[in-house]
């Protein structure tokens, strides 16, 4: 599998490009781009890890956090540019609940079948809960106020921008807090860092080059994927919401999924939690607000109003994840519960 | 009292039967059946306990969980058969909030007046909270999706069946988890098992016979009770909802009520929590979904949509119980708080 | 500053009186009364502390709890008398969220910049969370029931009175529990009591006299302030809601604000939590219900129905505060998060 990675990456990338520019069958376009995105996301993940190896743990964590969601951010920017705000919000929703329920659930289940209990830093668990709650609040408050009080569109946009700004301030504060001022309080044991003691695959310069290359490739494939999603979803009768929240989100997070599960099976549940919860926090507190500011560059501006069912889904995912993770340990049954809640949400979205 | 138990059981049972089949005054029918239900529920409880004595703790726990809610399940099946879905949902709601607030509240208050602090397994407290939250999610998600997105009746029923299936899977997983794979992690000290060291009242064969007999009697009395409830509630101007959620629920849970309070006063709060929370979990995650499948056997099919006030009441009961029990200890004041929330809900339902 | 306190108190009080009775410019009336309220609140705080010094810790705590919110209660009674129920509810909402988010947030941030972690009694943290949740439930339940079930105005008032009665019972129970039966369980170390070892500024008789005097002054200034708020808020285009929930609430809680921040900077975060959370609990569970009963003395009666956005704001403040404080410790970042949520709510209320 490892030997075939780069050939397959190359083949699927070229095939996707040809399918897109030669206007081949849309279903084929979608499928080949969806497969390709898994490979480029994996490539991006490896490049990020390799750079993190040279840059040290602290900066590495920051890079991981910043590049890890690059695929989502780039996909979303293309959607924002085309004014497909509902699709953007659906895919953000899908990423958040996918990370919290699917990635964390599968990790806890896989790890829990091997180890009776898996423990991680209890302070981090508490802080994660609070931050996830902040993300819910930032979506819930504008929705309630705009609906109950019939705010004008201009006021809604201003409110959205201010809340987006607050979220970015909160996220930057979190980076300072968790990586500088209270780093040691929130750390697991050393062995949770998967890179520890491993030698790097690539040189420093090569790593940086691959990071840039992977990001560019992700950008291209994402655009092709988005182009075919709409036609594809119509063909199969899936709602835009279901495609955005589940199909696109699962594909876009493929790299995180496999990494987190593998870490959990090595009894490094703390690292798996950091990937799953950390990634969903970044989407809620950084990617989503940045997209609102990015939309100011284009003709139509995106506000922060998510639909009732999206907010409900995120709130449910956050509450159940908090309840499961609050005690700083996970078991197979808790993983199963998270997956079951994911199934419930998936089915509900499917029927919309 | 103990001596009079079986004579009174017999007398009220016969009287209920005569009153029902001879079409006596409806108020009298209701009262005598309501009294009788307390005795047959008590009889069922004793038979269950006695069987559990022979079958061992693990299987005993399972039997207790399965037969403990027999009265509710049987009452509910008759109501489902008659298409009285609103009454069914009201009585399920009433059972859940009655167990969480009234039974647990009265136990914590009674126990807390005798003992300053009563501790129970903190892992169990956390898991209970998560599972109760799952029950709320399973009611909340379909309600939100159906209301916001105007799902068709067919889609609503399919969604209901899938969610009901998920809940049963979650409940079966919980039995495996709490009774097999993680039994020791969730256990209290040995002395919380009330049967420990006691000799059985009845022989093994007698116990099984009484279990079957009691279940049959519960079935009959429940049907008679349900028959008179509607007329009775009209007469006194009580809403169907109030009767279902409070009067029927209190009567139907009489056996659990007295058992839990007596255990708490013996400083066995862990067992009281297991009865109160365990029973409400079984209703939310097993009885309710089973009823949805049972309704497929009849002409009209029941969906999983509870009314806004029912979901609100369950959510409130779950949140306050979680908050009170999360630290694995109870005091008199926490019991009083649960009872006060029960009063608030009771009054609110009364005015509907 | 200390030397100037009483002269400034006198000057602003006289100036406020003259401005009010001579019908000077309304903006000037508002500003001078707003400044004066800060001084009289401070005076009331000092008098209360001094009485507490003589009365002992237990009774002192009770007096502090009872007189600490005197300003809010008195302002509110005048508003109730004039039938300005929306303004009353807005200012109660503002006091609750202001204490939980602004006072506690600023304390945790200020204390956290000086001390890495600040710990307080973890049992108290849990109990506070439960009680705050009770306050939310008491507002949420009637709102949901009245809206979904279209209760009549009479039923709504009866429901309001019963719930108000329940809340007062809960609050009195809390005083007995936290000050008598479980006092020691909920206490911090001795040094958290700010009066310990300090000599009193005033004699016993003088302290009582000043307490009465300060309360009377608060009553007068509050009435003048309320008189000018309406005109003032129209002039600047602020909504009544924003003025009630933010401007009046910040002014009315000035004394608590400064005391709590100073205590936190002396590493007495437990005392700061007690002021912030204790004060908001008293408003939710005692001041608000008392006002409902007080309104029976006047022509128009106030019910317990808060608006959707007020309940949403209180629920959000309670959830985030619970999540932050549940572990019995605070850091600078947690303080910052609380302040950011306060900003989000403030901005949202501003746009209404």
TrEMBL record, chains A, B, C:
Transmembrane segments: 29-47, 59-80, 92-113, 125-145, 157-177, 208-229, 241-263, 275-298, 304-321, 333-351
Domain Sodium/calcium exchanger membrane region, residue spans: 27-178, 207-350
Domain of life: Bacteria
An example Gene Ontology molecular-function term: calcium:proton antiporter activity
One protein family per Pfam: Na_Ca_ex
Cellular compartments per GO CC: endomembrane system; membrane
Chief location category: membrane
Parts forming coiled coils: none
Subcellular location(s) of the protein: Endomembrane system
Membrane topology: Multi-pass membrane protein
InterPro entries: CaH_exchang, CAX-like, NaCa_Exmemb, NCX_ion-bd_dom_sf
Keywords tagged on the record: Antiport, Calcium, Calcium transport, Ion transport, Membrane, Signal, Transmembrane, Transmembrane helix, Transport
Keyword Transmembrane: yes
GO BP term, pick one: intracellular calcium ion homeostasis
Signal peptide stretch: 1-19
Keyword Ion transport in record: yes
Family in the record: Belongs to the Ca(2+):cation antiporter (CaCA) (TC 2.A.19) family.
Function: Ca(+)/H(+) antiporter that extrudes calcium in exchange for external protons.
Name listed for the protein in its UniProt record: Ca(2+)/H(+) antiporter
Record lineage: Bacteria, Bacillati, Bacillota, Bacilli, Bacillales
Gene assigned in the entry: cax
